[in-house]
Fold these 4 entries.
Entry 1:
Amino acid sequence: MAACRWTGAGPNDSEGQPLGENGERLHAWMFRRDGQHGGGPEPADAQVVNGLFACVGAVLMGRRTFDLGLRNWGDVPFPAPCFVLTHRTRGDLAMGNGTFTFVTDGPVAALRRAEAAASDRDVAVTGGAVGRQCLAAGLVDELHIHLVPVLLGRGVRLFEDPDAGPIGWRSPEVTQSPQVTHLRYLRP
Amino acid sequence: MAACRWTGAGPNDSEGQPLGENGERLHAWMFRRDGQHGGGPEPADAQVVNGLFACVGAVLMGRRTFDLGLRNWGDVPFPAPCFVLTHRTRGDLAMGNGTFTFVTDGPVAALRRAEAAASDRDVAVTGGAVGRQCLAAGLVDELHIHLVPVLLGRGVRLFEDPDAGPIGWRSPEVTQSPQVTHLRYLRP
C-alpha cells in the first residue's frame, strides 16, 4: 500500500528555505513551540502525526526533496528506509534512524522496492513530482492532506496537472484542530 | 461583506458544458437525483445550500461565468440582483427572480455597487477571475469551499496565482456529508 503525503511550498524554495517563502506556515502546526501544549503540537495534531509515524514502513521521495530537506531533517524524515528517486546515482547514505538508498529505475520500480522494504506497513510518498507520478500511475491508495488556512499566492502546487484523468476518492476522514484541517482520502 | 464562493472547472468549458469535462462531478452533491433523499441533496448539504441562499443579497460575477452559465440557470443563479463585470456593456436583463446589470468600471467599483444592493446581506462573488481579483484586493471576508473528492487532472484552478502575498484565514467551520466537505473560512 502506498500512502501519499506531499507538500506544497512557497516560491523560491532552496536548501536554506526548503519550503520556499512563507512555506514554513504550512508546517507550523507540527512544530508549535508556544508553550500552550508543552511546546509541541496540539493534541489532535499530535495524534495525527503519531498515527502517520506508526504506519510508515518506508519512504519514497524525489532527489529535489532530498537535496532541499536533508540539512533540515539531519536524519531520515521518518525512522524507516528511504528511497530517493534520481537520475544521478550515488552510494547509500546511512543516518541515525535509517538509510537513504538512491534508485534510478523510475517511480514504479522505486515504489516496488519501497513496498518490499515496508513489508506490511505503508510507503509514504513525499515530494511533489514523485507523488504526482505515482498518482497518475494509479499507485496511490491513500491521500493525506494537511490543509492549513493560508493562501501563499505563489509557489509549488500540490496537484500540478497530474494528467491522470478524473480520479475519485471516498469522502475523507476529517480531523480538525485550531491550526490545520487533516483530510484522509481512501480509494473507493 | 463579500462572501466568495467560486468554482473550479474541468478542461474545455463551453456554453454546452459550462463546468468543463467531468466538471459536473464538482456539483453533483447539489443536484442528487437518486431518490435516496426525496430526489434532492443530502440533508447536511441541503442545510449548507439553504444557509447560502438565505444570506446572499446580491451576486457579483464575471462575463464569462454569465455567458457560460445563463442557459443552464434559466434565471439569475441566486434570487437577488446580479452584477456582471464586463468590458462590453449592454442593457439590463430582467429574469424571473432578479435582474442582471452589466458593469464596466472594474471589480472594486462593481463590488461596491453589489454591496449597496445587498444592504445588510452578503455579496456572493462567483466565477474564478473576479473572485481572485477581489481576494487580491483584500475585499473577501469569507471563503466557502465545497471540496469534492475527485481530482480532475486538468481544468480551471480555484486559486490561480492570486498574487496577493500570504493571506491567512481562521480555522474553517467544517460540514461533512457523504458527497462533499464544506469548508467555511473567515478572516481573522
Entry 2:
Amino acid sequence: MVKAAVLLYQRRMAVYTEVSDDALRAFLAEYGLGELQAFRGIAEGVENSNYALKTSAGDYILTLYERRVDPAELPYFLGLMEHLAAQGLACPTPVQGGDGEALRMLAGRPAAICTFLPGVWPRRIRPEHAAPLGAALAGLHVAGAGFAGRRPNALGPAGWAPLLERCRADGDAVQPGLMAELDATLAGILRDWPQALPEGQIHADLFPDNVFFLDEPPRVSGIIDFYFACTDLLAYDVAVCLNAWCFDADYAFNVTRAAGLLRAYHAVRPLSAAERAALPVLARGAALRFLLTRLFDWVNTPPGAMVTRKDPLEYLRKLRFFLRADSAEAIGG
Amino acid sequence: MVKAAVLLYQRRMAVYTEVSDDALRAFLAEYGLGELQAFRGIAEGVENSNYALKTSAGDYILTLYERRVDPAELPYFLGLMEHLAAQGLACPTPVQGGDGEALRMLAGRPAAICTFLPGVWPRRIRPEHAAPLGAALAGLHVAGAGFAGRRPNALGPAGWAPLLERCRADGDAVQPGLMAELDATLAGILRDWPQALPEGQIHADLFPDNVFFLDEPPRVSGIIDFYFACTDLLAYDVAVCLNAWCFDADYAFNVTRAAGLLRAYHAVRPLSAAERAALPVLARGAALRFLLTRLFDWVNTPPGAMVTRKDPLEYLRKLRFFLRADSAEAIGG
C-alpha cells in the first residue's frame, strides 16, 4: 500500500512536463524557426521545465511555466526581458510567433521560446567574478529604468510574516528554537527597513546559476531566469548578491569579494549614502527571504517528491552574520 | 531527526555529478575543441550524468559515468561506438584527446566526450517509426559484425535467477503472488531458451528515448546510450524492441507495428527460420529482464531518493502477453 501510494505520487509530481511530438510540431509551426534539429530537457532550474531547442535557425530555450509561476505575471516577465535585451543587456529575448505573440500554450501550460545565451555559470566563485557581476547588476538596473511595467515583490518585507506563519507548525523540528529566533529577527528587520530608497526593476534572484560567464578574465555573457523579477528597492538586489555570492564554502563572509562587487556596481550606478547605509538591514532581509522560502519548501516537500530541497539553515548562518554586521563597511561597502 | 536523515541522504544521492569550472577547464584542455561556449546538464537518462557541451568546434555530449557502470567495461562501450560510427552508423563517436585517449577522469569519475547527434526521440510512437527503427537495428547488427570486443550480457538469462532472488524479500509486497508467478515463468523461459542462434553485438536497451528521429516521414538520425550493449543473440535485441516499441498506451500489443518493424529488419538482415521461431520466448525473456531490473530498483530505492523509479508491473503485463503468444505470427513475425 505504501509503495502504491509512492508510485501515484511520483507520477503526479514529474519535475518536467513531457511534450509530445505532435504538440511540439504544432507549437513550432507558429514560429519561423525552420526545421527542428534537437530537443532535450535541461536539468537545471526547478521552477519551470526548460528544453534546449535547436532548429535550423539556431539554438533556443523553450520554457514551460509550471504551477509556481502565476500566468498573469508572465507578460511582466517577458516584457521586462524584451525591454532589457533591447537596451543591450545580455538576457534571454522572447521570440515572437507569426502572430506577434511570445506567450502561448503547450502541453497545457503557458510556454515561451527565448534566445539561447552562451556561457557557463560559475560552480566555484573566484575573485575575478566580483567586478563583472557588480557591473552587470548595475547595468540591469540602469537598463530597466525605462520599463513601465510594475510587479510588487511578493517575497518582499510584507510577505515575510505570512510566510513565517506557514512554517510555524514544523519549523522548530528543523532546528529547536528557530521560530522564536526568526520572530525576533523579523521584527527588528521590519523596524529598520528603509523607506525612501530608489526603486526600479530588480532581478531578485541573482544567484550564481543565473549568471553566465565566458572568457578569461571572466566577463558576464548572460543573465537568466527573470521569474522572480519585480519592482522594488534597487539596493535590495545588491543585498541579494551579497548573500548569494559573497560567502566562502565555510560560510565565512568574503569581504574582499563584496567590496569588489560594490565598487564595480557603484562605478556604473552610484549608490547613494542612504542606500549604502541600508546595506546591512537589506542583507538581513535578503537572508531572511531565502531562509523562509527554503524553510517553507523544506517542511512542505514530502520526502518522496523528486525535487531538490535546499538547506534552509545555510541562510540562518548568513542571517546571523548580517545581524552582527552593524555598518556598510563591515560587509564591504 | 527524520528530516536530518533525509537531508544527508539527498546530499549523497545527487543524480548529477557537479563539475567545477577548474576541473572542466583542465579536462577540455586535453582536447582540441576550441573555446567553451556553453555547458548544461541534460535531464534525460538516469544512469550517468550527461552535459550538453558547446565549444567553438561544435556541439558535444560530455558523459560522467556513475556507479552503475563498471569502469572496466568502458573500453568495450566506447570501442563499439567508435567501430559502429566508422561503419557509418549514426551513433555518438567518442572524441579522442591529444593523447589519443577518449576516456579520462573528471570530478572523480570516468568521463568521455562524444559527438552530438541531431534528432528528437519520439514521445509518441507512430506507425511511421516502425520501419526505420527495424532497419536501423538491423544496420547496427550488421555494422557490429567486425568488432572484436566481447562483453557477456550481465542481464541475460544467466542473470535472471540471481536478480529474482534479490527481489524475493520485498517482491510480493509490490503485488501479492508475484514471486511464485515469476519463479514458474523463469523456469519455463530458461527451459525454452534457444541455444544456437546467431550472436553479435547488441544494443540491449533500444527504448524510444535512445533513438532519435528527424524529418517527415521520420528517419533514424541517431542511436544513443550503448551502456547496456553486449555480445548476445541478435534476435534478442529484436525482442527487446517488441517490448519497448510495440505496445500501445493501453498495453495492447500493436501487431501491425511489430510486423512493420520485423519486415524492415528482415530486409536488411534476414532473420533465419530458427530466429523467427524463437521470437516468442525471446520476447518473454526480454519482458522478464525489464520486469526484474525495475522490480529490483523499486524495492531497493528509498522513497526519498531523487531518482525516477519505473513501474515494474508494466512489464508483468507485457510478460503475460508474450506468454500467451505461442507463435511468431502472433507477435507480427
Entry 3:
Amino acid sequence: MPNSNAVPSRPGTIVAMGEILVEIMATRVGQRFSEPGTLIGPFASGAPAIFIDQVAKLGSPCAMIGCVGDDDFGVLNVERLRGDGVDVSGIAVLKDATTGSAFVTYREDGDRDFIYNITNSASAQLSVANLRDDLLSKCGTFHVMGSSLFSFRIIEAMKRAIETVKTNGGTVSFDPNIRKEMLRIPEMRDALDFILDYTDIFLPSGHEVTLLASATSERGAIDELLKRGVKEVVVKRGAQGCSFFDANGETHRSAFKVQELDPTGAGDCFGATYISCRAQGMDVDTSLKYACASGARAVGVKGPMEGTATFAQLDTFLQSATE
Amino acid sequence: MPNSNAVPSRPGTIVAMGEILVEIMATRVGQRFSEPGTLIGPFASGAPAIFIDQVAKLGSPCAMIGCVGDDDFGVLNVERLRGDGVDVSGIAVLKDATTGSAFVTYREDGDRDFIYNITNSASAQLSVANLRDDLLSKCGTFHVMGSSLFSFRIIEAMKRAIETVKTNGGTVSFDPNIRKEMLRIPEMRDALDFILDYTDIFLPSGHEVTLLASATSERGAIDELLKRGVKEVVVKRGAQGCSFFDANGETHRSAFKVQELDPTGAGDCFGATYISCRAQGMDVDTSLKYACASGARAVGVKGPMEGTATFAQLDTFLQSATE
C-alpha cells in the first residue's frame, strides 16, 4: 500500500489552462459529415475546461485560464463554468476570433471521427499575455492537458505558468491526453517532455505510459517516471479500471460496470476527481474510488462536460455501483 | 425596353472563385447557440459555391476555384459541385486547414444570427497560387462575390484573376453581397471599388445600390454606375422583385409569391440564373423571369444550396407561380 503522506497535492486553488471548445455531436452511429443529418449541440467542451468544471463541482476552489471568441459558443462555456463555481476571470473574450469547435461522430466500431476548429480558434491565441500571476502564485495544483500544447505560443505560456506555480510551492499534474498527430512534430514531443520534468502527478491512459519513456514495458516506464521525479502515477485504463504507483508501491482498482453512452470527457472527469480529492486531503484509495466513479458516471452521459458530478451524485452512484 | 444587344455576357465557361463552406442550421426559430439544441447539417454552402452550383444546374459550362480542408465537409462540397456538373479541378484540398463553416439560427423577427469559421478556414488560404490560367483565359463570365474579399491575399488573387479574364475578352459580374463589417475596413471598401471598375454586370441588393456610389438616391447611383462603365445593373429586391438598368432604359419585375422557409442562397441563385441565361443568349426579360423564379424557388427550400434548380424545375415552378 503506497504511503499517502507522499502526496504532493497541497490545498489551494486548482488551475487549468488551455482550450475551451464547443462540441457538436452526430446523433446516429455511423453518421458521416459528408452528408446532412441531425446533430445536437453545442455542448461545452475542451479537455482542460471539462477538468476544471469537474473540480468545481467537487467544491475545490479553482480557476480557468483560456480564450473564447465574442460569440454564443463562448457565452455557453463561460456561463457554464461560472455557474458551476469556476473562477472565470482568467478567460479572455477575443473580438476577432471564434470560439473553438469540434464535430464528433461515432463509427460502428466505437471509434470516433472528428472535424476540428481548434488550432484556428480563439483558443490558439492563448499566450503569455493571458497568464494571471495572481491566480498562478496562489495555485495549489496546476493541471496541464497534453492536448493544449498545439502551438509554440501556448507551450511558451505553459512553461511560464509552470515556473510561477513551482516557484510559489504549487504542484503540477499532467494528463498527456495526446493526439497521435502531435508526436510526429519533434517540438511537440519536446514540449511534453519538458512538462514531464516538472510533473508531480502524472495521469496517462494505459497506452500513453510508455510514449514518453525509453522503456518499452509499462513497469519499466513507471520506474523511469518515478526516478525522474514524478511522485504519483495514476494510469487510467477505462473499462479495465486504474492503477496507482508511487515510490512506495502500487495499487489497482477495477472499473465500475456501466453502459457506455459517450466516453468523451470521462478521462478528464477521472483526473479532475482524483486531483480534487487529493487536494482536499483524501487518501489514495478514497481518491481512486471517487475518480473511478466520476469516470464511470461520465461515460453514461451524452455530452463531454455533461457528465461532471458533485460528491452527492458520486455517492449516489457508488451506492448502486458494481465493479 | 433596354436593348438586349448591349449585353456583355459571352458564351464560354462561367467561373466563380471564393469561399466554400458548410452550414449548420438551428432547427427552431429563436434557438440560441448559447445552449444545446437540435441542429441540422452540414449543408453545402458559400455564396460563390451556391452561385456556381446553380449555374451548373442550368447546363452552362462552369468551374469553381477555391480551397477546402482535407475533411468530410470538403468532400461534401466537392462531390456536390462535381455531381451537379461543375469543373472542380480548381478546388484545392488543403491538409492543414479545416473547411469553413457557418452556424445559422433564425430570430423571431426573421433576422439571422451567425457564428462563422471562415476567415480562419481553408477558404482564407486562397491566393494567387490557386489561380488557374487555363480556366480563366477561356472564361466567358467571371463572377465575384463581395463576401469573398475578406483578406488581402484573396483580394490580390481576385484582381489577378479579373485581369486574366478581361485580357482574354471575358466579362465580369459582381454581386457586392457585403457584410456590413467589411465596409468599416478602408482596404475592403477599396477592393470593392476596384472590382466595380472592371464590372460589366452588377447585381446588388436594393440597399447595396448606393453603398459604393457618391449619389444618395438609387437612380443617381445607377446613373453613376452606368457612366462608370457597368453595362447592366440588376437590383435584387427580394419579395419586391427586381429591376434592370442599362444605358438604354430600365425594366422592373415583381416577385413570385412564395412562403419563405430559408432565404439563404436565394440571391446567389437569382444572380447565377440571370448570368447563366444571358450567357446562353436569352434576352433580358426571359433572363429576369428565370432569375426571379430561381430566387423564389430557393427561399422555399431549407439549406443554402438545396434550392438550386434546373430549367425543368424552374419551368414547373413557373407553370403554377403567381406574381
Entry 4:
Amino acid sequence: MRAISQDEFGGPEVLRLVELERPEPLPTEVLVRVHAAGVNPVDFKTREGSGMAGVLGKPPFVLGWDVSGVVEQVGGGVHTLAVGDEVFGMPWFPRAASAYSEYVTAPSRQFARKPANVSHAEAAALPLAGLTAWEILTAAAHVKPGQRVLITAAAGGVGHLAVQFAKQLGAYVVGTASAGKHEWLRGLGADEVIDYHSTAVEDAVAEIDVVVDLIGSETTSTQALAVLKPGGQLVAVPSGTSAELLAKARAAGVHATGFLVEPDGHALGEIARLVEAGDVRVEVEQVFPLTEAAEAHRRMASGRTRGKLVLDTIS
Amino acid sequence: MRAISQDEFGGPEVLRLVELERPEPLPTEVLVRVHAAGVNPVDFKTREGSGMAGVLGKPPFVLGWDVSGVVEQVGGGVHTLAVGDEVFGMPWFPRAASAYSEYVTAPSRQFARKPANVSHAEAAALPLAGLTAWEILTAAAHVKPGQRVLITAAAGGVGHLAVQFAKQLGAYVVGTASAGKHEWLRGLGADEVIDYHSTAVEDAVAEIDVVVDLIGSETTSTQALAVLKPGGQLVAVPSGTSAELLAKARAAGVHATGFLVEPDGHALGEIARLVEAGDVRVEVEQVFPLTEAAEAHRRMASGRTRGKLVLDTIS
C-alpha cells in the first residue's frame, strides 16, 4: 500500500511516498481502507522532532492520527462493526501513528460510525480536533450553561469546533480571529468575535469563566489571566504553554491546566451525533492528494487556515 | 518491580518471579500500582502457546489482563483520573499483557473507577470476565426482556456474571452447573439450574432464545442446537469452538457466532455502577500471592472453580 513516511526529522521535504505492507487486523481490531486523513499541528511538530516524536521514537514512521474510511476486514471478536461500514477515528494516539496511508488497523472501539451527512474528507477533519475541543470543554473545564467562554484561534481546526460545542453546552462564546473570519464565526454561533490584530483582548472582554487557549503563547496566557473571573479556568494546549506560565496563572487565582487529547470512541460517537443532527459543522479548507502531504504541512504551518486540511488517500 | 514472566511456552512451572523496570506513563496514560490481578483461562492457554500467544509473540512476556489498583502517576493530558484514584481495567488486551506485576501503564480510558464497595481482589476479577459477559449479552446477542437465555458453565468466572447481567436485562435465565453450585446460582438470580452430570440439557429445557456457551465443546454446541428456537442465537467463546460446529449451527437455522472480548472503558463503567448498586456480585474463590501464580494456573486448569481466581500483587 502507498503511505507517506519519513527517514529523518526535518522540514516538509522529508515526507516521501513509500510502499509498505498492508497491515493485518489482530483479534478485536478492524482493517480500514483510509479514504481521507486529517492533518494536524501535532503532525508537523512531530515531523520536526517535537510534538509526539518522544513517543514515536526515531524515524522512519508514518504520520497522522485522523482517519475516515471503510471497514475492509474485521478481526476475531469484533461485534460492533462489519465489513463495509463507514467509520472515522483517531487510531493509536499517541502510541503510534498511521493515518497517512491507504490502510490502517486499530481496535474497533477506537472508531465510531461516520456521520452519514458528511464526506470522508470532512469526517477525517473531526477526530483529533473534535475530541480536543470536546474534552477541553467537558472533561477539563466542565463548561456549564450560561458560562462565558473565550476561545483563542477560534477559526482554526480545533477552534471552530470548540465554538460550536460550547454553544451546544449553553455557553456564551467569545472568539478571537482575524477580521476576515468574523462573519463565518458568527454563523457558527459565536456571540462575540475579537480581531486580535486591532484590539487588545483584555480591553474587549471581562468576567470570563473559561479560557480555551489554542495558541498558548505568553501573550495569550497573560491576556487570559487579565480577563478571567477569580476562580475561573484556563485550559491551554500544551504546545507552547510553558510550566512558568501555568504557574503564573495559578498564582493569579485561576485554575490552569495544559491539555492533550485522549482517544475515546464513545465521545467520537457523541460528536458524530451532533454533526449528523446538523448542530455542528466541520470546515475543511482544502483537500490535498496524499502525494502532496508536504504541501499540506507547509500550508498548515502558515497558521492562516480556516478550519482543517485533509489528505485524500483514495485518488 | 516484581513481575511473573516466562521464558518459554509450557506448563505452570515456566512462570517465574523476575525483577523488571517500572514502566513510565506516556502522554494520555496512567501508571497504576497493581493491588490485584485476575487470572483467566486465556492466561493459561497463552502460557502454553495457544490463546493470545499468536498476538503476544514469543516469550519472554508477562501474562495477565485484569487489573485493580491505585493511580500512582498520570501522564500529560489525563483529565479523567488523578493520583490516588482506585481503578480497575483490562489494559492492552490483546496487544500486550502486563497484569501479573506490581505496576502497569495504559491509556487512562482503558480504566474505570473501582466500585467503592468491593475489594481490589474482587474488582480484579471483573474486567475480562465482566466485559465478556456484558458484550456477549448486549453487543453480540442483543438480549431483550422476557427472552429465555441458557448459560453453560454458569458458575464460572464469566458465567456467574452473565447470569446476573442477563437478569438485569430482564431475561429468564437457565444455567448449567454441578449440583453443589445450584443454590448459590439461584441466589444470584438464575431461574433454573441444570446439573449436566445427571441431566441431558436437551431433555430439561426448550424454546431458548439465546445460548451463551462458555464451554464451546461439541457436546454443548450440539445441545445448544437442540434447545434453541428457530432464529435463536448461539454465542460461543472462541476457544474450543470449531468453525465446523458454528457452520453446523448455521445450517440448523440459528445465528451462531464465536466471541472474543473487546476492551471498553465505558462498558466497564456500566459494570461498576451495577456492582456499586448491589445489583451484581462478583465471586472470588481464592486469592493467591503473586509468587504462587503457577499454583493459581493449576487450580484454574482444573475447571472446578466457583467464580474467579485472583493474584495479590501487594503483600
